[in-house]
Amino acid sequence: MATRFVIIGGGPAGNTAATYAARLGAQVTLVERDVIGGAAHLWDCIPSKTMIATGGAIAFTRRLEGMGLEQQQPEVDVDALTERIESIKTRLQHGTTRLLSSQGVEMVHGSARFLGPNEVEVTSPDGVRILHADAVLIATGSRPRIPEWCRPDGDRILITRDCYPPKVFPESITVVGSGVTGVEFVHMFSSFGAKVTLVVSRQQVLPGKDPEVAAVLEDDFLRRGVRLLKGARATAIERVTSEEGAESGVDEVVVRCDDGRVVRSSHAVLAIGSVPNTDGLGLELAGVETDRGYVTINRHCQSNVVHIYAAGDMSGKLPLSSVASMQGRKVAEHVMGLHKVAHRHLDYDKAASAIFTEPEIADVGLAEADAFAVGRKIRVTKVPFSSTPKALINNDWRGFVKIISDPATGVVLGGSIVGRHAAELISVIALAVTANLKVTDIVESLLVHPALSEALAEAAE
Ligand SMILES: Cc1cc2nc3c(=O)[nH]c(=O)nc-3n(C[C@H](O)[C@H](O)[C@H](O)COP(=O)(O)OP(=O)(O)OC[C@H]3O[C@@H](n4cnc5c(N)ncnc54)[C@H](O)[C@@H]3O)c2cc1C
């Protein structure tokens, strides 16, 4: 009899696991309480990147003059933008649903919870159904963290999910949180013309990232008039409306910081991380252990109950859609016993990631600071894009490529890219890191001319 594999959550982790497991012969039931595609399609990656792409197009028009064209001032059509976001989401959801159907995955709409280690109850408007499983994947994702000191109203005090697009475009906005999501939202709103203040709890945006990379972004923010409030932690966010103010349509949001500084703006958005969707799942009935709400997993994504797996944001590893999908794929292989034949373990240290700001930022593998921290000898080469003809042709020569390699063997260990198309270009370094390629493999690849990738070859020299 085929393995009965029940998956809870239809985001990148769940739907990828479902597709691969079904392809490998499992009898797969995928339970989703909202829409297939998950928060990634509905609330996070796709709508945020769609908004950023439109904002980027506006930013691009500011560079037209240097390209021999007249300066343009585009107007935002909020209805058209909303329609564009919705149509992209719908198209992707339909594509994923079609793929799952074509592999024979049974999709059940409803909310799931464990009744025991091999039993999952699904509640939907149509009633309650019990599923019996040989293996279960928990892939229920995460949601934005909302602290006690803030009550988002979806109108002026926002969480990221209220922003695609917001009901009223902000004249000014305070972004609380300077991690990846925070800086992307700074870029997004400032591209749309808002006056932006960023509350940065440390002395650097993107804490934990290469300081050289963060510095390029900070410079760009300052050049665009973004106010950086460094070393400040928000402690309260309130909407203040005087009667007189409300009548004349003037509302303000006041963000108070622990060092006494106060920021006033028309809107504020919280970007201070997420919490796992594991409450109400009945994990205790299945005997599954958690740590601060995240299911603890081993390298095969198995929980302490060996036939119950966890993948994606609620597994507490890297909160990236790409990582969630790869975990899902690895879980499918493990459930179907493929790991005994041919299986490459997932190495989270080799995950590429990108930040969709202007300029774009991407990195993969070993970071310079981490190597220094453990006294590891490395070779670092850095080449500015301004040395490539394509950057001059593009009228955009900001940023650089940095490649980190082993001085003894030449094996590529990591790298970072700041600049146009960084998220695409990092793939070359990511492949080199995953496949243990050497710098000479990049140097000797016959790349395109003129192209930004020439900076990669130069950095690998
Ligand atoms: C603003 C923002 C932008 C982002 N941009 C990027 C990006 O550009 N690139 C990138 O790689 N990552 C990005 N991420 C991260 C990415 O969105 C997540 O890492 C990814 O969605 C995780 O996938 P998942 O499968 O774990 O969960 P999700 O995508 O959250 O899917 C989980 C699904 O489980 C369902 N579910 C939950 N509980 C139950 C239940 N009890 N029963 C049934 N169904 C249930 C939910 O409805 C949901 O559909 C971004 C995150 C944010 C916040």
Salient structural properties:
FAD/NAD(P)-binding domain, alpha/beta, about 450 residues, 14 helices, Enolase-like, domain 1, binds flavin-adenine dinucleotide, 5-stranded parallel β-sheet, 25 strands, 3 domains
Summarize the structure.
It contains 14 helices and 25 strands.
Topology summary:
Layout: E1 4-8, H1 12-23, E2 27-32, H2 38-42, H3 45-61, H4 78-102, E3 106-109, E4 111-116, E5 119-124, E6 127-132, E7 135-138, E8 142-144, E9 157-159, E10 172-176, H5 180-191, E11 195-200, H6 211-223, E12 227-230, E13 234-240, H7 243-247, E14 252-257, E15 262-265, E16 267-270, E17 274-276, H8 283-286, E18 290-291, E19 294-295, E20 308-310, H9 321-335, E21 353-355, E22 361-365, H10 368-373, E23 379-384, H11 389-393, E24 400-405, E25 412-418, H12 422-434, H13 439-443, H14 454-460
The chain binds flavin-adenine dinucleotide.
Residues 8-14, 31-34, 38-40, 44-45, 48-49, 111-112, 139-141, 160, 181, 277, 281, 312-313, 319-322, 324 line the site of flavin-adenine dinucleotide (FAD).
